[in-house]
Amino acid sequence: MVWVNEKIVEKCILVGLARDSRQKNEVESSLDELAELAKSAGAKVESINIQVRKPDPKYYVGKGFVQMLKEQVADNGANLVIFDDPLSPAQQRNLETTFDLKVIDRSILILDIFALHARTAAAKLQVELAQLEYMLPRLTKAWSHFSRQEGGIGTKGPGETQLEIDRRRVRTKIAQLKKDIKRLGQQRDTQRKSRQNLFKVALIGYTNAGKSTLFNRLTKSNVEVANKLFTTLDSTTRVMSSGYPDKIIFTDTVGFIKKLPHQLVASFKSTLEEVSYADLLLHVVDSSDPLYSDKIEQTRAVLREINAGEIPTLLIYNKIDVAENTEGNNQEADIFHVSALKNLGLENLRNELSRQLGLYSYKTY
Ligand SMILES: Nc1nc2c(ncn2[C@@H]2O[C@H](COP(=O)(O)OP(=O)(O)OP(=O)(O)O)[C@@H](O)[C@H]2O)c(=O)[nH]1
Ligand SMILES: [Mg+2]
After folding, report:
1. What is the spatial distance between Cα 232 and Cα 216, in angstroms, rounded to a whole number?
2. Which CATH architecture is the domain 195-364 placed in?
3. Could you read off the pLDDT of 56-102 as tens digits, one per residue?
């Protein structure tokens, strides 16, 4: 199921809410990120709108603002409205009725990007599970007409009986997906056991920080790299031969983001679990991003959520070839300044990895 069509370029307008004027900067940067997400899903952003007020129970933003947005939609021919915060099923319905358009929030957008980028069987199953979990409470008469391709606006939704059948089908499908995911998880467990005495390093960090680029450098691999959010969804594991006979096992993982939908965290649990078995984390940071320290905090919050908050970590300030100024953070020993793209600063990092491998081998033999 794809919410934002894969092929058709949708024109969208973005909407955010700041509780008070002090919160405005934060909301602005969150909307910039939402714009990146929209582009990664193939949509064209027509405008970004922020209102300062408390959330309204009916429309989330104020009624007058909704009218203004409606005019804007008509003016620039947008066919999608994206809200930065989670909408309740009722708010989403009210907005869709007022705009006569599809209205989604950040969670659906992220789920959609995951659906577009899912390549492996495990990623596909996990995304589908997250989508169905998200959809189930929203499966109502008024909502379903947008999910029907030919139906279009004004088409009647299914009757109550049909709705019950649909809900039951979704629940059955959810149960089946969970079973399949569990089976794949067991295969992963077996693989993991075979590596249990090897030194395991996982690359983690905010989406688009350059994890896969660094992974490719360290392991001479060729996983997909792109200037888009959530290029990588599944973990890839490769070996780097260091001092014979010891080896380092590297794992590249899915990136994190602010307001990651909890359905995704839940269904990607087994992929994310991979991280919690690592002996060392390389926390990759895009140091050219003005908001990098905020993103470090966001990443740490997700790590805690998946029980990986206590694993020894090296902070890797990547993209130093385009970063303005990160000198203020030079003090700590476990920070490395590199450019994975331009192959800068990697020797220091490799030396540290070899040193840590040595310590690990000493401990385990
Ligand atoms: N300038 C510069 N760009 C880089 C560097 N490292 C990575 N990039 C670029 O940053 C973008 C994202 O790189 P990826 O390696 O795909 O990032 P990722 O962290 O794996 O991203 P996701 O898998 O989407 O979470 C790509 O356009 C890379 O070419 C670097 O050191 N300098
Ligand atoms: Mg990646």
Report:
1. 13
2. 3-Layer(aba) Sandwich (3.40)
3. 999 999 999 999 999 999 999 999 999 999 999 899 999 999 999 99
